[in-house]
Amino acid sequence: MSNIRTAVVGLNMGLDHAHAYKMAERSELAWVVDLDESKAARVAEQLGCRYATDWTAILDDVDAVSLCTPHHLHAPQALTAIAAGKHVLLEKPLANSERDCLDVIEAAERNGVTLMLAFVVRYLPAIRKLKEAIDSGRYGVPISAQGWVEAFLEPMPGTWFASKEKLGGGVLFSHGCHYIDILLYLLGEPARVSHFGTRVGTDWMEGEGTSHGIIEFKSGALAHLISSWGLKYKKTPARYQIHLTEGMLQLNNDMWTVEAVTKDGTETLYQRPPEYPARPGQNVLFEIEHFLDCIATGNRPETDGREILKSHRTIWAMYGSPGVPVRL
Ligand SMILES: NC(=O)c1ccc[n+]([C@@H]2O[C@H](COP(=O)([O-])OP(=O)(O)OC[C@H]3O[C@@H](n4cnc5c(N)ncnc54)[C@H](O)[C@@H]3O)[C@@H](O)[C@H]2O)c1
């Protein structure tokens, strides 16, 4: 198969996709698109491709498109690209409602195109190592997982981030979705969930800016995830700590280092190797290569629509179940 002609729509997060397509051997980055023409022109010049402001006008000239646009545009844009027979790498989340998610999934299945969700964290080598370590049984059985997704966003009142409808919820849906997906990937099927969210410290947002979610898995293991866009001052312990009967596995905040604590002390299981330097596009290169590989082979992407719908449904269940409140 000749190189896959690619385009990226939306050049904030999409800038990383564009860099990764430029690096990936199977891809020829043909177009970058943004409503902001000067941004699109700048990126096109930097990466040696063409630019446009109307993404529908360049669809005929590409095989695959990354959609890196605000959440409320995901479903309509994905449906347009799929109807044109294009393979789609869609930034997270899939869409803001279950119905819209299913419409996109079914359209991709009907049209025989690859639909992959850009769940970048799934494809990071350290996450693979964490899963391998848990699945090996060497550390026993998972008991309790904690995750911290602590960030501070400068207030953006009036933008799509501030709108609950356009964002699809609050920080849990928008940013926490990566980390709920990883908890399901690592610990299996959820059985029960509960959730509290608050707008304290993030009252520019309509949805919750800080979220505490709990999952009980079918295995009996428990997980607690804190996600926030309102925490200015922090000393976050790790991204995840997973306690098992014979050890504790930790993914550091750098998202590259995995450590195991056991009776023998602390062992580093994975560290960033020199072949993956810190450079624009490196983190998304793993998912972009998987996307291109699935297009070339016809294989199902690991994070296809149906897989990602599982973690979206978990979040919607959390939103529908604000803890089991006991009034004090
Ligand atoms: N995986 C991650 O770690 C990560 C991080 C940040 C954002 N994202 C995701 O990336 C997507 C975009 O988020 P963002 O933070 O970059 O948003 P943003 O609002 O900062 O940037 C969106 C860009 O898309 C452009 N745009 C909007 N509508 C367009 C259209 N119809 N045609 C062409 N360009 C259009 C805007 O001009 C802007 O440059 C979201 O789905 C978000 O969740 C993922």
Automatic annotation (TrEMBL):
A GO molecular-function annotation: nucleotide binding
SUPFAM superfamilies: Glyceraldehyde-3-phosphate dehydrogenase-like, C-terminal domain, NAD(P)-binding Rossmann-fold domains
Location of the Gfo/Idh/MocA-like oxidoreductase N-terminal domain: 4-118
Pfam families reported for this sequence: GFO_IDH_MocA, GFO_IDH_MocA_C3
Domain of life assignment: Bacteria
Boundaries of every GFO/IDH/MocA-like oxidoreductase domain copy: 127-249
UniProt cross-references to InterPro entries, sorted A to Z: Gfo/Idh/MocA-like_OxRdtase_N, Gfo/Idh/MocA_Oxidoreductases, GFO_IDH_MocA-like_dom, NAD(P)-bd_dom_sf
Species of the source: Paenibacillus flagellatus
Name the UniProt record assigns to this protein: Gfo/Idh/MocA family oxidoreductase
